[in-house]
C-alpha cells in the first residue's frame, strides 16, 4: 500500500485509502506486482467493467501513448477478422482512431498476420457527409501520413470491406486488395454490436480477446462472459508477449 500511495499521492489518494484499495482490488494488486517486477503479465476482467480495470492499469503501469483500445478477433467460416475498438473508447476522435489502427495493425503483425484495414462507416466512399463519415475520412488521411505502408482504405460499408468486387464497382483504384481482416469502427457501439452479433451468429461464440492495446505491460482485460477457453487463450497471449519483452 505504501508504494501505491507514493505513486498516487498527488492524485488525491490518502495513505488510508491506498491501504484499503490494496486489500480489495485484485487488479490493482496484480498491477503493483508487475510494477515491482514480481509478475510478468496479468489477465483480469471476469468481474466488473473494462473501465474499472483499466483505471488501475493506467494508474500503475501507464500506456505507451495517450490511447488505450480493445481488439477482438473472430474465426468465422472462411475468414478471420479483428475489430476495434470494442470496449474502451466511446466515441474516439479521428486522431485516436488512427493511433488505435496503428496499434491494432502492429498486434496483427505479431500474430504473423499481414493487416488489411477497412475503416467502416454507414457511408460508402463519400456517399454521406455526416460527422462520423467525415471522421473516418479524416482517419484515413492521418493514416496515409503516419503509416504510408499500411494497406488501408475507407470509409466503407461492411460488405465493401469483405468483398473486393463490391469495392471495385465503387472505387476501382482502391488501396485495399482482397478481404479486410482488421475492421475499424467509428465508435464503441458499432464495434461492440458488430463483434457480438458476428460471434453469436457465425462464430460459434468463440472469440479472441479482448486484446488490450496501448498498455506498457503484458496485460489483457477480459469480460464477464469469458469462457474457460478464452481465459486460457488470453493467458497464452500474455505469456508470449511477456517472453518477448
Fold and architecture overview:
By secondary structure, this protein is of the alpha/beta class. The protein folds into two domains: 1-63 and 215-244, Rossmann fold, CATH 3.40.50; 68-214, Isocitrate/Isopropylmalate dehydrogenase-like (Rossmann fold, 3-Layer(aba) Sandwich), CATH 3.40.50. It contains ten helices and eight strands. The chain has helices at 2-8, 15-24, 26-35, 50-60, 94-110, 131-146, 158-162, 164-170, 188-201, 228-244, and strands at 42-44, 69-76, 79-84, 116-120, 151-156, 182-184, 207-213, 219-221.
Task: Summarize it.
The chain is of the alpha/beta class. The chain has ten helices and eight strands.
Helix content: 40-55%
Helical segment count: 10
Tell me the radius of gyration. 19 Å
Silhouette: elongated
Structural class: alpha/beta
Q: Average pLDDT, to the nearest integer?
A: 92
Write the layout of secondary structure elements.
Elements: H1 2-8, H2 15-24, H3 26-35, E1 42-44, H4 50-60, E2 69-76, E3 79-84, H5 94-110, E4 116-120, H6 131-146, E5 151-156, H7 158-162, H8 164-170, E6 182-184, H9 188-201, E7 207-213, E8 219-221, H10 228-244
Parallel strand pairs: 1-8, 3-6, 4-5, 4-6
Antiparallel strand pairs: 2-3, 2-7
Helix pairs in contact: 1-2, 3-4, 5-6
Amino acid at each position: 500500500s505504501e508504494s501505491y500511495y507514493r505513486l498516487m499521492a498527488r492524485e488525491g489518494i490518502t495513505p488510508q485509502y491506498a491501504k484499503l484499495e490494496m486489500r480489495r482490488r485484485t487488479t490493482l494488486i496484480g498491477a503493483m506486482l508487475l510494477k515491482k517486477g514480481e509478475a510478468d503479465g496479468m489477465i483480469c476482467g471476469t468481474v466488473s467493467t473494462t473501465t474499472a480495470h483499466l483505471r488501475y492499469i493506467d494508474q500503475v503501469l501507464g500506456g505507451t501513448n495517450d490511447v488505450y483500445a480493445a481488439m477482438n478477433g473472430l474465426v468465422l467460416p472462411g475468414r478471420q477478422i479483428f475489430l476495434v475498438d470494442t470496449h474502451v473508447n466511446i466515441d474516439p476522435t479521428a486522431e485516436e482512431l488512427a493511433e488505435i489502427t496503428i496499434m491494432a495493425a502492429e498486434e496483427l503483425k505479431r500474430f504473423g498476420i499481414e493487416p488489411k484495414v477497412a475503416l467502416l462507416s454507414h457511408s460508402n466512399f463519400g456517399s454521406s457527409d455526416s460527422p462520423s463519415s467525415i471522421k473516418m475520412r479524416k482517419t484515413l488521411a492521418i493514416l496515409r501520413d503516419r503509416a504510408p505502408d499500411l494497406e488501408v482504405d475507407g470509409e466503407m460499408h461492411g460488405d465493401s470491406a469483405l468483398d473486393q468486387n463490391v469495392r471495385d464497382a465503387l472505387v476501382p483504384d482502391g488501396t485495399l486488395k482482397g478481404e479486410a481482416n482488421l475492421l475499424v469502427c467509428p465508435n464503441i457501439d458499432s464495434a461492440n454490436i458488430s463483434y457480438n452479433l458476428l460471434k453469436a451468429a457465425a462464430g460459434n461464440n468463440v472469440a479472441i480477446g479482448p486484446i488490450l492495446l496501448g498498455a506498457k505491460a503484458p496485460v489483457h482485460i477480459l469480460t464477464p462472459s469469458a469462457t474457460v477457453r478464452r481465459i486460457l487463450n488470453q493467458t497464452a497471449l500474455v505469456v508470449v508477449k511477456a517472453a518477448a519483452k
